[in-house]
Amino acid sequence: MDAAQISPAIEAAVVRWGGLIRRAATRHGLSGPDLDEVLQDLRIRLWRALERPAEKNPTESASYVYRVAMSASVDLLRRRRSGPLGKPVALELVSDSLLSAREPVDDEAAQVAALGRALEGLLPERRIAVRLHLDGKTPAEMAGLTGWSGPKIRNLLYRGLADLKTILTRGGAS
Question: Which residues, 6+ apart, have CB-to-CB distance to 72 below 8 Å?
Answer without folding.
Answer: 24, 38, 41, 42, 45
